[in-house]
Amino acid sequence: MSDSIFNPEDQLGAVSNKIVAGLERISEVFKVLLWEKAKANGLSPLQIQLLIFVAYHKIELCNVSHFAKEFNVTKPTVSDAIRALLKKELIEKDFSSADSRSYLVLLTIKGKEMVSATENFADPIKNQLLKIPSEEREALFNSISNLIYKLNRTGILTVQRTCYGCKFYEPKETTDYCQLLEKDLYTTDIRLDCPEFEEKAR
């Protein structure tokens, strides 16, 4: 067989292969932690992700079409999750949009309580990251943020709201700059999910 990322022999001396294999392991940990929290609260992983997303994002992003893009699932799958959350009285629909066929999703009081109970599912990963020296964490974040941007630019990652893809972002020789905030951007200032994000022209 040709060179494979998942063949231990092909990982020898191939750092890129090792990184991809490592990211796959971490993604498995993320899924396991999410599943455990979902089962403990009688929800599906997607239902938890939808609740958390609604809690922390602009209302105009909280609709079926955007959820499908955000979580890389079909609209029917999102609709099924929304029906389940409505039945559990964790969300409600807002039909105030000009388009009577569409609606926005809002959290109920029970929904906000569920977010508080479930949003810490990834804390075990964060706790291990906090044990890594700050300089190494900064370098790791820099690599991840650049990888996310490049995956989006190639069409593999459909949704991203990172500085690198924003029209307000201005790369410079030493320190990058945000035209909206009118401030220099250091590595730790780069956002992966910016509320003011506006996609720049490709």
Automatic annotation (TrEMBL):
Domain HTH marR-type: 16-153
InterPro entries documented for this protein: HTH_MarR-typ, WH-like_DNA-bd_sf, WH_DNA-bd_sf
A Pfam family reported for this protein in Swiss-Prot or TrEMBL: MarR_2
Keywords assigned by UniProt, alphabetized: DNA-binding, Transcription, Transcription regulation
Superkingdom, natural source: Bacteria
Gene Ontology molecular function: any one: DNA-binding transcription factor activity
The protein's name: MarR family transcriptional regulator
